[in-house]
Amino acid sequence: MDTSSQIVCKGCQQPGTGKYCSQCGESLQTKRISLSNLFHEVIHFFTHLDKGIGHTLSQLFLRPGHMQREYIDGRRKDHQKPFSFFFLSATVTGLSLYWINILLKDFYGAGNMKESAFFHQYMIFLLVLSLPYFTLVTWLFFYKAGYNLAEIGVLLLYTMSIFFLMVIFSNCTKFLFPSFQTRNIELPLILGYAVITNINFFQKEARWKVIVKSLLAAYIFFKTVTFIQDWIVERYFNV
Description:
The protein is mainly alpha-helical. Helices cover 66% and strands 2% of the residues.
């Protein structure tokens, strides 16, 4: 058998030929992620959602950083594609925060109707626009790791999706403590998850450097987004 044309599968490490692995079904001809790949995913999202939402979500909670690195390395068939996962998470977050504020207002008289209007109309738009900014900030901190902007974008599409779900969880605590400032727990949760994810993702860099860079990048992102959110709410939602 001619082994010169065989490719080692990134999924099961078995040699094979053709487009797909005969052992596990993973694509053998994976290419490095580029900006054109991400643009294709935007178009792909509006045609259909892939399988693997539950598996991707569990992996992001149980194996943060490892899952994203493996996806970039070529193990992709079992995972929800990054853009569709991000957009779905952002949509769920915007709607959830809107209804949480409505319910708090109706049952506790404590909901912030300015924030509710913002979440309903502009939350998803702000989250989508924040992605290139956070991608650039993270890439600047970790540019020596050798990943391009698109690959850092994939890392953050998945990571920010978990950030969004954490925000939903923190806002649900208002049903127990209506006057609680959720940012008191949102920031530590986001910083902690970002550090763990990046330690597992950037394994070739000294751990202490990854921790410091992760904290700085996540803090800059969080403070920027919350500042813009507060500014928009106060300026345009006088209700």
